[in-house]
Each structure stands twice: as C-alpha cells, then as structure tokens.
Amino acid sequence: DKEVRAIFLRLFAQLFQGYRSCLQLIRIHAEPVIHFHKAAFLGQRGLIENDFLTKVLNGMAFAGFVSERGPPFRACDLFDELVAFEVERIKAEEGNPPKMIKHVRELAEQLFKNENPNPHIAFQKVPRPTEGSHLRVHILPFPWINECRVQELLQEGLARSQGAPPAARGDKKCVVPAGPPVGM
C-alpha cells in the first residue's frame, strides 16, 4: 500500500514540479487570495496543447490543492521536499529501474514512519460489559493510591521515553521551498 502511494507521490511531484513559481498572491481583499496562473505553468513546460494536464489544472481537486498548499508559510511535508529537492533525482532515475524502485521503497518507508511514529505501542480493545452488569449491587470502593508506586511508574516511563526514537515529523511551520524552475 505504501509503495503504491509512494509511486503516486513521485508522479504528482513530477506533474506539479514548479507550481509554486506560478502562484500569485492577490492582496485586494481583506484576506489575501492565492491564484494559480495556469497559462504560465503550461507555457513554461511547453504543454499548452496538453488536454490531460489542462483538465487536471481546471479540476476542483487542483483548486483545493492550490488553496491548501499555496500559502508560503505553513507546515511542510514529504511532497514539498520532493517537489523542491528531489526532482533532479527523479529525472535521473527514469532510465534506471533499480534506482527508481529503491527510491520508491525509501518514500514508502517515510510514509509509514509518518503514519506510525511509535509502532511498538499496541492498542487493546476495551471489553464490552457483560449482560446485566449494570444490575450488580456489589460495587467495590476505589482503592487508595500508593504515592511511592506512582512515582516509580513515572520514573520508569520517563526512562523508557528517553530511549525511544524521536517522532517522525513535527508540524512546525516554515517557509515552503520553491524548488527548481520549471523546464521543458
């Protein structure tokens, strides 16, 4: 699943390479509006007559893409890194399938790490209450908490978390890299 997603991620990174250079920020309104200059994007790539790409750029999905990814200051992700820094690598791998497969597997691993930052944590299902459990009259009192044991458990948890690997990615906002200019 992750490898298929990685292939599509590479495809869209190649398809939309240089899209940031065609974004225009219009400040006429109270809140700035981001506009995508389709003719400039198609012209830079020499694809003005390409029906497929024209239809993709005219679609609602691409409009949502521009509104979500248009702001110059937001949390960056794997797609932004691919568009900005890996375009040359992707082009170089076009004639070399083993390198392409290796890159797809690396991307799939990154996707997996982003979705599962702590894979060792197991979730347990809470059992459903038995029939008639609400009718029971023997309710046990809540036990007293042993402060020493609580402190021991906290120290154990801190010791374990210090040895754990860091989270895959934070959502810190940064300036989105523009990437290389669009070529033919």
Automatic annotation (TrEMBL):
Residues 162-184 are annotated as: Disordered. GO terms for cellular component: cytoplasmic vesicle. InterPro entries: dDENN_dom, DENN_Domain_GEFs, Tripartite_DENN. PROSITE patterns: DENN. Residues 1-76 form the UDENN domain. GO terms for molecular function: guanyl-nucleotide exchange factor activity. GO terms for biological process: regulation of Rab protein signal transduction. Signal peptide: none annotated. This is Myotubularin-related protein 13. It comes from Merops nubicus.
